[in-house]
Write a structure and sequence with these properties.
Elements (H helix, E strand, L loop, with lengths): L1 E2 L16 H10 L1 E5 L4 E3 L7 E7 L2 E6 L5 E7 L6 H9 L6 E4 L3 E7 H10 L1 H27 L2 H13 L4 E2 L3 H8 L3 H13 L3 E4 L2 E4 L2 H8 L2
Antiparallel strand pairs: 1-2, 2-8, 3-7, 4-8, 5-6, 5-7, 9-11, 10-11
Amino acid sequence: MKTKEGDWTRNFPALKHLPEPDVARLRDGSMVVALSEGRQIFGPGQSPENFLLMIEGTIRVQQASENGREIVLYRVSAGESCALTTSCLIGHEEYPAEGIAETAVRAVAIPRSLFDELIASSAEFRRFVFTAFSRRVTNLFRIIEEVAFARIDVRLAQRLLQMAADRNRVSATHQDFANELGSAREVISRQLQEFQRRGWIRAARGEIELIDRKALSHLAQG
């Protein structure tokens, strides 16, 4: 669902550096969209029609291999833009991955035509777009390094602690962890079984209880 909205630019502090005429063009030429949880925002083979700026919610960007394995590349949260959309808009390419609404989402949709005009005419808007883009690319290289070189037990311990936050329970399947960490479900299952054998966790269907956070934290520190 698309709606007009007031001054949504206040949700993006970096836009305050744009000249007022450019801000007005953004406000007048863009729409705020509401997307339901679980909806596919974009998918492989599709061409982006809008540049999205997130107001509320989270989009998960993930890619699947030919054998069906998935890896979560990154998430787009409030105040952020999608680096893959930026890349495809600038390069006139189709999406190689998909974006899924992890929660209900509200986002600003800037039409491709307006995006192209501002990229060409506004140095401040270019700086806003490419600063976010470069930050995300740097994070993607970190993910590639982790998948290629980091031990899976260390990364799994880190993810367990991150998802648990200040609680001692994590609601996720073995396949969820495999997708997050770019591994196979069987590898994750074996590692969780080893954590359970050591008395660090207690695993049930779709849920993991953290028993020894100190041991997991020690492992997570590498």
